[in-house]
Write a structure and sequence with these properties.
Chain lengths: 275, 340
């Protein structure tokens, strides 16, 4: 057996301290594979990604669609055009939560100790999580678009759909760094979820996702104007169904970059120093 | 400055620890620990719960940093050269640190890739180690379906993927039944035979005696004794031979005979009247042979002869004069520390 000969300890080996870019990609790839195998082992974990676009689209279109559509100067069909891009924005945030919950479960098992005693960049574990959550989101988006077309949504700009998906993914990945930080700092999955709910609910409803903010009180309008979920929903509307694409896209990109620049180092630092 | 080749015990040092201190709030988990592990040997770190054993292993595997003191592994400093250090160590924790949702093979393949083995080699290494740890049949099943012993073996296999120069075994058999424990011991012996240096923490004197060549006894974050196993056994009395004659009246004559026999270095025997047996402290195999020979030569009927190892408690009693103290578990006293 080769182990017997090759195990000769290399006590004075010149182990290289640096990890190359290829090394980082290799490590992240191995960890992505691990997270994908989890999904295969436990397909139920995809239920939220599968059902959320279906349930929420049907609820909003058929419960609020008529009355909000009227206020928009049309009917339910008018509301479908309004709310589907909003749904995309909503999902990009709600599904991002999963990254934090799965992560804290990871930490409670000894396997994190093993990862942290291996010569890998400590960010790899986090990047892999982000990549797999983005894949889940992409799956959800496909479902959403199928349901959307079934309830009568017209995509007028197909390139705009691609741009929207890219923008939503960019924004979602920035939000994931927040939930990764929570996942490292908070003790268990439940508290991550509870915290997530408290933050998500006001952000989602205090936005232009479900209804135009024009009838909201002034102070709330100021909030919704700069709420990244509004800017993402507005960008999605403009990109997919036509309309002035402009500062909402740049605001969304700005938010995403700003959140990532602040939160990614925080998440990696918290992960690195957690004892 | 302590350089690793200044090691006074001879032989190159694989692990050198000087004055290591680590606090968790008010609790001093490590209070100035010194330790030398020579290359190719097994160092046993013996101590009760909360003595600081796990904290020591966590520092030596770069999971936490010490408050003060220095430690090097294979010449790499735990604080300044963590990346190089991680390349030469293997870690098996108290709880099997494998991904339970993943099949055994996937666990090993993943670690192979994380250790930068090319795909083909990572696959081959996973197959090879599963074979060697008798897990081939369970290779495709999730580790959550494994028995305790299988999980521990998978954990050992995972630690061996990178062909580490230094292997930490943190209480490798805690919670295992005796048969499984023996399996793990056999695996450890095989690895040592291949030249791996092992740092083993344990709560059991028996485990230390089975595997370690040298022993460091720790209590409340301090080293209270260290040296060769034989040396320490001499200090704490080593094994005890319990002889029970069929006729209890034979006890005292038998004791008198052994004391008068003059077997080299043999300590005084004691009579355990309650259990109708004679206790003879044994330091080495020669003494054991001589005593058993003398007893049988006497031609009386013997109901049983057994050897007993001192318990951790007895070791502590003879080393420190107090019982093994576990005032609080280091982990429960340090809520910020996650379960290993």
């Amino acid at each position: 057996m080769s182990a017997a000969t090759a195990t000769a300890p290399v006590l004075e080996g010149q182990a290289d301290a640096r990890i190359t870019l290829r090394g980082h990609l290799r490590h992240t790839g191995a960890l992505i594979r691990r997270n994908l195998l989890w999904i295969r082992q436990d397909p139920e974990s995809m239920f939220d990604a599968l059902l959320m676009p279906i349930v929420f689209t049907l609820l909003f279109v058929y419960v609020f669609g008529g009355s909000i559509g009227q206020a928009l100067g049309g009917g339910q069909e008018r509301y479908v055009q309004y709310v589907i891009p909003g749904m995309l924005a909503m999902m990009s945030m709600t599904l991002s939560q999963g990254v934090g919950t799965g992560f804290s479960q990871d930490f409670n098992s000894g396997v994190m100790d093993r990862f942290r005693s291996l010569p890998i960049g400590r960010g790899s574990v986090l990047f892999a999580k982000v990549a797999v959550e983005l894949a889940r989101m992409l799956f959800s988006t496909v479902i959403l678009m199928v349901v959307a077309v079934l309830v009568g949504f017209h995509i007028t700009h197909w390139m705009g759909l691609l741009a929207t998906v890219g923008l939503a993914a960019l924004f979602a990945s920035s939000i994931m760094w927040i939930f990764l930080t929570l996942g490292v700092v908070l003790k268990n999955a439940q508290s991550v979820q509870a915290m997530g709910f408290l933050v998500l609910f006001p952000l989602q409803f205090g936005s232009s996702i479900f209804a135009p903010p024009t009838s909201m009180p002034g102070w709330l309008q100021h909030f919704t104007d700069y709420n990244p979920l509004s800017t993402l929903a507005d960008s999605a509307r403009a990109l997919m169904t036509g309309g002035p694409v402009g500062h909402s896209v740049w605001l969304t990109v700005g938010w995403s970059v700003a959140i990532t620049v602040v939160m990614a180092p925080v998440a990696i630092h918290k992960f690195r120093t957690k004892s | 400055m302590t350089r690793i080749d200044d090691n006074p015990t001879g032989g190159r040092a694989a692990v050198t620890v000087r004055g290591l201190v680590k606090h968790y709030g008010e609790t001093k988990a490590l209070d100035g620990v010194d330790l030398d592990v020579r290359e190719g040997t097994v160092m046993g770190v013996l101590g009760p719960n909360g003595a600081g054993k796990t904290t020591l292993v966590r520092i030596l595997s770069t999971l936490i940093t010490p408050d003060s003191g220095r430690a090097t592994v294979a010449g790499y400093d735990v604080v300044r050269q963590p990346r190089q250090l991680r390349r030469v160590i293997g870690l098996t924790g108290q709880y099997a640190s494998v991904d339970e949702k993943l099949p055994g093979w996937e666990n090993l393949y993943m670690i192979g890739r994380l250790l930068d083995l090319p795909r083909k080699e990572a696959r081959a290494r996973a197959d090879e180690l599963l074979e060697r740890f008798s897990l081939t049949e369970a290779a495709r099943r999730p580790a959550s379906t494994y028995s305790g012993g299988m999980r521990r073996r998978l954990d050992l296999a995972a630690s061996m993927i990178g062909r580490p120069a230094v292997l930490y075994l943190d209480e490798p058999t805690t919670g295992l039944d005796p048969r499984t424990r023996n399996e793990v011991w056999d695996e450890v012996r095989t690895m040592v035979g291949e030249g791996v240096t092992v740092l083993l923490t344990t709560q059991y004197m028996e485990e230390a005696e089975q595997l370690a060549s040298e022993l460091t006894v720790v209590d409340r974050g301090k080293v209270i004794a260290n040296g060769g196993i034989e040396e320490l056994k001499a200090k704490v009395g080593g094994r005890t031979l319990r002889v029970r004659p069929a006729d209890p009246l034979e006890l005292r004559p038998l004791a008198a005979m052994l004391d008068e026999l003059g077997i080299t270095g043999l300590a005084t025997t004691t009579v355990d009247a309650e259990r109708g047996s004679l206790l003879v402290p044994i330091l080495n195999d020669e003494q054991l042979t001589a005593v058993v020979g003398a007893v049988t030569a006497r031609g009386i009927t013997i109901a049983s002869i057994t050897t007993e190892l001192p318990s951790l408690d007895e070791v502590f009693l003879s080393l420190t004069g107090h019982r093994a103290s576990a005032p609080q578990d280091a982990r429960s006293a340090a809520p910020e520390e996650v379960a290993v």
